[in-house]
Amino acid sequence: IHSYGKYRSQPSASRRLLRETLKSGLTCQHVSKAVELNSVKKAVTGSLWSVCLDCMKERDVLEMEQVGTHDIRVCLKCGFQGCSQSESQHSVKHQQAHHSDSHCISISLSTWKAWCFECNEELSTHCNKKALAQTLDFLQKHSAKSASGTSKIIKLLEEPAEYADTQRRRSPVNSNLIPVKGITNLGNTCFFNAVMQNLSQTHMLNDLIQEVKDKGHKLKICPPPETNLGPLTVTLSGPEPLTSAMFLFLHSMKEPGKGPVSPKILFSQLCQKAPRFKGYQQQDSQELLHYLLDSVRVEESKRIKAAILKAFNNPTEKTADEETKRQVKAYGKEGVKMNFVDQIFVGELTNTIMCEECEHISTVKEAFIDISLPIIEERVSQHLICIKMTRIKTNYLFFAFADKKTEKVYTSARKQMLISVLPPVVTLHLKRFHQAGMNLRKVNRHVDFPLILDLAPFCSASCKNLRSGERVLYSLYGIVEHSGSMRGGHYTAYVKVRTPQRTSEQQAKMPLEAVSAPPGQWVYVSDTSVQTVPESRVLNSQAYLLFYEELL
Predict the structure, then answer these.
(1) Which of 28, 75, 190, 463 is catalytic?
(2) Parallel/antiparallel/unpaired status of strands 218-221 and 121-123
């Protein structure tokens, strides 16, 4: 998704014209009277942060589970904080009640966009002697200081009792609960931050990193029986730069303490591998996830291959005999699969296509990091998983042979796509961005998704040796959400703070609708802003990426 930064390559005259247009066209005549930085400072430092103050006054304690779950806007005249998306609309009511005193400009604490109720439009933060920009800067710094979460009142209201008790009892050393910290936006890097929030809450990733992060880690490679080779234990060197930066970042996210984490080192290393993410334009979270995991995967595979060669005294084409080459190849083929990216995120799809005329069957296997699912706008009800046998007109993998000439023939075919290897973490990608002719457009409709997902119906018979009637249950623990349009949008994350769970034999035999999600607390994260939210808000989100972990 590209919307910002596209004018950077234009001639300097064009850039100046664009800047002047932005400054003049979006300058608001109300800023001089409606923005008072000192009043805002005094108000927000003396009250709860990112909480609708009128909701706090009006609602009984037992009815306040929705407080703080909607977009909060700050009045730039007096510093009042009010909700803007709930039924109460306290931000609008505040402006209407103080209409004569110019309380018409407010800033969203989730998107950091300014809005004038009088002009009825979004404002540029570069206008009117920087008053708006200075106030925005103060609010963002204040938000960073408060980024360890919402107020204690909100947390006590929304946390399940068992989670709150765990938080009070737990020790930082042996706890499986990973704190949620805000991540600093480096300039339109919300697409990156939202993905990293989900990776930070991936328990298996954090566990495996602890094993392989240091130089000298031992890796035992066991080739398949047909190779007639025994196990080989190799010693790994230190991790490559991107992987090392990722280790450092995830460790910082787990450390106790307040304040957001800067992803500057990790993002800089990623940009060296994938220059497309440089600059300050908006990008796609799904593409970011692919580039990041693929790049780390390449680095770890290189690290493992080097360790195998070292175990054989670094043979070369000239010095190695055929048996040594065979062994190195066999250990290498098995060893590279043992990198932590493959162990956690990589699965396999089997595509089977059958020609309906000659019944020729073609099978292709391909690895996946996520599964992309289309959203059909025409349908009234949406189904999350669309992997099934369908009759299609194909453009394929068919050729007719006559008189030694090959002719391509188009024919009707049946296509089946099934999961043949399931990874511990399955990421589902809802394809919200579609090509419509020469234009890209976004599908904004809501798609229902389950907290507990049974993937057995979409697996091949060979996958995990599934027997008829067996289930493979996955639990939702993270979401990347995209709000906005193709011209401009914002990525945020929902993550579930929880302890690792196992499926009991009793649960495994229960109907799917009777299986409950593991206990935990959902947290909404928008860059440096962090707040606990109820499950109902999570289920109503406009999901773009869904992260599911296997219930062991």
Answers:
(1) 190
(2) unpaired
Tokens of 493: 């994350």
Q: What is the CA radius of gyration of the chain?
A: 27
Q: How many CA within 13 A on the CB side of residue 475?
A: 21
Asked if 487 and 3 touch (Cβ cutoff 8 Å), the reply is yes
Categorize the per-residue pLDDT at 212 as very low, low, confident or very high, splitting at 50, 70 and 90: confident
Q: H-type helices in 159-263, by residue range? A: 161-169, 190-200, 203-212, 241-254
- Dist. CA 86–CA 84, nearest whole Å: 6
Structure tokens at 483: 């709000």
Give percent of the chain with pLDDT exceeding 90. Answer: 38
DSSP code at position 261: B
pTM confidence score = 0.65
Choosing from 70, 142, 482, 490, the catalytic residue is 490
Does 104 qualify as catalytic in the annotation? Answer: no
CA distance 76 to 35: 5
Q: Say which residue, 484 or 146, is predicted with more confidence.
A: 484
Contact (Cβ atoms closer than 8 angstroms) between residue 467 and residue 460: no
**pLDDT for residue 153:** 35
Sole residue written with tokens 């989100």: 541
Q: Name the average pLDDT for the chain.
A: 79
* Tokens 């890097």 found at: 189
Lowest mean pLDDT among 112-121, 140-149, 178-187, 260-269: 140-149
Q: Is 490 a catalytic residue?
A: yes
Extended strands (E) in 394-487? 399-402, 405-408, 412-421, 425-431, 433-436, 439-442, 452-454, 473-484
